[in-house]
């Protein structure tokens, strides 16, 4: 019987999931699946965590909700302290419910910061091509992806400016990573000079572009250049750590790979590892001091922001990550993952590139390894691979829009951070079966 529930393509004939355990999911027919992309890089500590279940149940019995204007929240304060410590560069935190909301709030805080200092015209917030920061109007405006393109004709001109992606395999500026002068970073300076620094509030980027571009890892010196440019032109740096935050890449924060501080960091997904919705916008002392000395008021937030249940759960998730020394675990498992990916790349002629950092990785498929030519869109390669994987009991997230017009095929491999080696082995066995099946159809 068809359901009145709306799915992305309106209706769905996918199986119903009834339970999960570690990196495994089970449907109502009892078929098992490896959660190879942690859903959408969210189920970072896997399914069925007993400690989290207990924290949630105890919290629900204690109190359902208490509003932040009326009462303080001990779980939220504890969680904020833990996140500040792990960040190494932020001083204060505000909680929201989704990555989109938190990025939206980050943009608003950046504009507020400059307004409090009397810079009324600083309103441009620059982003990059091939990026995703969420599905609200503000986050679509700073990103560049298909969802944005769908409503772009209605768009305000303040949102049009986009910088090149750090896509070294297909450098949008035609450079080579061995000899380039980080022209992708210099493009920020050019753009600021064109718009006038007095009109630019912030630059937003993921430390490592996750799903939008199929794991794009910037050149080592990229963020140091970006920071220098932001400082020289009085621009805030906002980093979207919705995917890279809290251990996914083998460091607590993605920016720790580059030893560069941002002014605002955004967390989501892995913060509560999928158990309930929660996200966070984290600011540094510089921003806090200006707002504290100025309006002393934050006009961000939603009814459920920082609710007792989600913050209690996230506090438990962060404790679990800290107690397990998760970044180190991820680093070690990342070596194993890389090795498996390289084996796949060597085995199949259609694997053009593998990009991996910690347990965040993508395989990019090409028609021709030499020319790096993409498959035509009508082949629907990533869609077919993810369907074949699902048949073989592996859930994988296809990356969309490596190039404008939804061109390019890549699959994201990002299992739960606490996956066992047996689970990782099962992932790659099932991936191999799926690739064999689809590639044999290609001839
Ligand atoms: N930022 C990044 C890097 C993301 O990958 C996503 C979602 O995929 C978001 C922000 C938006 O998060 P949410 O879907 O929780 O609003």
TrEMBL record:
Gene3D superfamilies: Aspartate Aminotransferase, domain 1 (3.90.1150.10), Type I PLP-dependent aspartate aminotransferase-like (Major domain) (3.40.640.10)
Family: Belongs to the class-III pyridoxal-phosphate-dependent aminotransferase family.
Single GO MF annotation: transaminase activity
Organism: Pseudoalteromonas byunsanensis
Lineage: Bacteria, Pseudomonadati, Pseudomonadota, Gammaproteobacteria, Alteromonadales
The protein's name: Aspartate aminotransferase family protein
InterPro entries (alphabetical): Aminotrans_3, Aminotrans_3_PPA_site, PyrdxlP-dep_Trfase, PyrdxlP-dep_Trfase_major, PyrdxlP-dep_Trfase_small
Cofactor(s) demanded: pyridoxal 5'-phosphate
Keywords, alphabetical: Pyridoxal phosphate
